[in-house]
Amino acid sequence: MKETVLKKFSEVFGDTEGVKVFFAPGRVNLIGEHTDYNGGHVFPCALTIGTYGAARVREDKKLRFYSMNFEQKGVIESSIEDLKPEKEADWTNYPKGVMWAFGEKGFQIPQGMDILLNGNIPNGSGLSSSASVEVLTGAILREFFDFQVSNQDLALIGQYAENKFNGVNCGIMDQFAIAMGKKDHAIFLDTADLSYTYAPLKLDGAKVVIACSNKKRGLGDSKYNERRKECETALEELQKVVQIGSLGELTEEQFEEYKHAIKDEVRVKRAKHAVYENQRTLKAVAALEKNDVALFGQLMNASHVSLRDDYEVTGVELDTLVEEAWKVPGVIGSRMTGAGFGGCTVSIVQEDAIDSFVKQVGEAYQAKIGYAADFYVVEIGDGPVVL
Asked: What's the pLDDT band for 229 if we cut at 50, 70, 90?
């Protein structure tokens, strides 16, 4: 892939003098969905698919961006002196947002850049192509301008850019999982205080399989911000009867005791998901520590049911993928992953069942939805690197 991006860089920008090549992964969350902005725990891992970038510093203030994933858009230009979100800037609002955020955090970028990207994350899949681009951009800026920032800083700057520049009220999970990825490990992250541990993913003859629904969605205009607001309102109502700073602080028993304070049935369901999903995540990680992959799978299944019925973020595409997966012998667990409303499912599947899983689920999905899903058997990889 390094040769591919360098060759294209030379075609687009004239030569490759002074160019360095970078990689930042995508991520998948194994369990703990819509908990990251509710003060709960998440359990994501970085993937070996992600975003490759070739970059160099210019003598002037000009920014030139090119994506091999959106070749029809050509070179998109702007300036380091005029960093603001613009509709016509399209995908470049993500790297521009990170450049802006570095400036806001006191790291002024002195010169313009030529940047070419090529991602092998399916676009709109919910595997965090945008967060991958953000972390990649941060790694590029750190390398070229010698900014003293850690990988965790890259995650926080990426989230800040997405919140404040691009207007998506995302939690920290995506950027954190990408920036802090570790090969063959998932990250057990407490989003309330960013404390984390690495948990080895020993799946005993099973693999992580991602099914992409190919239903396109945009986070900013999805129901994401609406769900977040519902949870914030439910928290305010609960705080009148119990001292908590986030929904993630409640056990299931405490939630059942105090839920009467929430004045709307829909908000009760939303808050219930946030509380119960956080507890499921704690149980799932404990199960993995005991090598109880079967229990981990059952908790994944329960997570999907809650996302479908209480949080209502699945939709017919994701439900079909998961419900068909549950029918296949050798599937240990399956659930939607990411924000929902399209995107992907994540399944743990015995290796000898993967072919039948792809065939059976793929045929059922095509028959019901009318177009194909894509399947990826993924490996768990490291965070951002200079190649």
From this structure: very high
- 148-171: average pLDDT: 93
For residue 281, give the nearest of 350, 221, 362, 199 by alpha carbon: 199
In angstroms, what CA-CA distances link 134 with 94, 130, 185, 305, 335? 6, 6, 22, 31, 26
> What's residue 217's pLDDT?
61
**What are the Cα distances from residue 34, in Å, to 10, 122, 286, 313, 336?**
42, 21, 20, 10, 11
Percent of the chain with pLDDT over 90: 87
Mind listing the domains of the chain with CATH numbers?
A: 2-201 (3.30.230.10), 206-378 (3.30.70.890)
Question: Rounded CA gap, 73 and 69, in Å?
Answer: 9
Contact between 273 and 306 under an 8 Å Cβ cutoff? The reply is: yes
Is the distance from CB of 266 to CB of 230 less than 8 angstroms? yes
pTM for the whole structure: 0.89
- Strand 62-67 to 113-119 pairing: parallel
Average pLDDT over residues 170-196: 92
Q: How far apart are CA 302 and CA 86, in angstroms?
A: 41
Is the Cα torsion angle 23, 24, 28, 31 positive or negative in sign? positive
Q: For residues 133 and 145, is the Cβ–Cβ distance under 8 A?
A: no
- Active-site positions read 174
- Does residue 304 sit in helix, strand or coil? helix
* pLDDT > 60? residue 287: yes
Cα–Cα distance measured from residue 91 to residue 84, given in angstroms and rounded to the nearest whole number: 13
